[in-house]
Amino acid sequence: MSRMEQHVADEWEKFSGLLAKISGYGEAIGLLHWDLRTGAPRKGVEIRSKTVGMLSGEAFRLETSAEMGQFTEFFSRPAIMNQLTDVQNKIVKDCRKEYERSKSIPPERYEEYAVLAAHTESMWEEAKENDDFTSFEPFLSKIVEFKKEFINYWGVKDTRYDTLLDMYEPDLTVKKVDEVFSRLRSRLVPLVEAIAASPNKPNTEFLSKIYEKEQQEKFGLFVLEQMGYDFEAGRLDESVHPFATGLNPGDVRITTNYLQDNVTSAVFSSLHEGGHALYEQNINKDLVGTPLAQGTSMGIHESQSRLWENMIGRSRPFWQRYFNDLQQHFPEQLVNVEVEDFYRAINSVSNSFIRIEADELTYNLHIIIRYEIEKLIFNEELSVKDLPKVWNAKYQEYLGITPPTDSLGVLQDVHWSGGDFGYFASYSLGNMYAAQILNTLRKELPEIDELIAAGNLLPIKEWLTAKIYQYGKSLTPSEIIEQVTGEPLNPDYLADYLEKKYTELYNL
User: Fold this and answer.
1) How many angstroms separate the CA atoms of 333 and 204, rounded?
2) Residue 188 sits in the same domain as residue 327
């Protein structure tokens, strides 16, 4: 690479100033969102939503400004590209893609949408609490209308829904998802059926005794510390729906939700959100203030949360080490429970209504249901008011159960209220990526089970930092998966992992 000419260096400095400004807005919006979800007073919601909308509108104006157009055009010239580093070229490419995609959306429409989405999220909380889809429906319908309008601006790919998928997982298409999901489904459904017919059911009764929230929180903080979550660069709070938010690599916050009659819910959501947070805390510091200081895609992001939550957190070695600690937090509830009984109980498979409490196996079916419904909304014009009916029918078809209320059905997830259509597919992709990454991790760190059983989780975190975390968004998802595992995404690793684990658990 030739040395950067002075005028190019000057331009880059100006461009970096614009990026830092956008990143500053992003951090302020992230913090306001976090506050909305973790206990902002209800009466302030409406005005707060307007503030979020206004700041989102300003950030959007900068991303689609003439200045952004000029900078990205200038740095995309071949003679100039040759003077930039790979990371700099990737920044330009991503900013250009975003500029080209969104420049035709009128900024005031975008701002209107951002106000509505922030407000709808708070409406969703109320609707879920009161089991009231009817009051929520008009807000959700507006969100869907906005999304449809934006798809026209962004440009329709093969199908209208493809446009949304690409936003969470670059280059993901309905065609690809249909293919990987059908391969996965064909192997998981027989496995779920075999388990349902198996007489070897674990006892799970003790999991639903009453577990005090304070002790749950203490144990959650201990597990996060063990994983290597840096509390000087983060904090743990409470919210209706657990989430992680990376404001910058030095401030990545997570939340969980405590259920007194379910001891595992908060443990696994802390491990899950902790996995997201490790990714964001360990991005290379050189990327701070650029659009690359974030996870490369939702699929890779979810692979990290699912790897920590399930493949490490639900493993036998993990509880050989930590069950004793959990017992000490809850001596009464877990008296006479053996570690093996606990391990079997937390991995029991049953058809359930709630996605985030689903077992590792049926979880993917919850995702496939949501993916199919989103496809119907955007490609087949399914109306929002019909969502409860369609939702319940799909649960009957895939899991053999019908939700008794909308709170346990269509109202259970926060994603749609914030306009995140196209996101759900990335959870199952995350499971597939995670199984494929674990396969390589076992080859390169053959003593992994011994390390987990000894409570020595840091070598795993360091391996993941070297292979995935440090790069942030400077590599694409397909570059990461191929660089780490030597092949593109392959759903068979997940099916192999689940078959092996559950055949042993249920003596199939």
Assistant:
1) 12
2) yes
